[in-house]
Amino acid sequence: MEGLEAFTEWWFELLNYAQATNDFEPLWAVTDSGCKTCTNFESFVSQSYDGGGWIVGGDLTIQSFDSSFEPTVDGTTDSYVTTTQDALTVYRQKNAVEEVDAYVEPTVGLAISAYESGTWRMYDYGDIAVTND
After folding, report:
1. Based on the number of CB atoms within 10 Å of its own CB, is 95 exposed (0-12), middle (13-18) or buried (19 or more)?
2. Which of 32, 43, 101, 110 is the most buried (most CB within 10 A)?
3. Helices (H) and strands (E) in the chain, counts
4. 22-39 pLDDT tens trace
């Protein structure tokens, strides 16, 4: 199932592209409209670009990918994606700057995808709370 891993890597490239350009069309072309994380992310990015603002950095990088490649009862496939994120700076109008530190500690997220009509589609993605009990 290398196709799912390659799709997930490409999806993160599209996510990074959307953040850098405020162009979400390529991301939404392969993402379900019900993706809450994506909707929230688009809102943050769009607000950052309002009034001539822009974003520098913040790229997510996949550190590892793991999946059983077994479809769930609803036909989707869960994958566990470990990422890090570069530092991010939002430049807003009137020289206001918002900085977010890099996430150098890997974060594990759950990617929910499905293979439909000969192509993969992302249904949702989100961080998983990991506890060390």
Report:
1. exposed
2. 32
3. 3, 7
4. 999 999 999 999 999 999
Angle at 64 between CA 63 and CA 70, to 5 degrees: 155
0.70 exceeded by the pTM?
yes
Domains belonging to the chain, first-starting first, are 2-127 (3.10.450.240)
How many whole angstroms separate alpha carbon 23 and alpha carbon 10?
A: 15
Identify which of 51, 52, 24 has the alpha carbon closest to the alpha carbon of residue 39.
Answer: 24
- Alpha-carbon gap, residue 36 to 18, rounded angstroms: 16
- Residue 80 in tokens: 């566990």
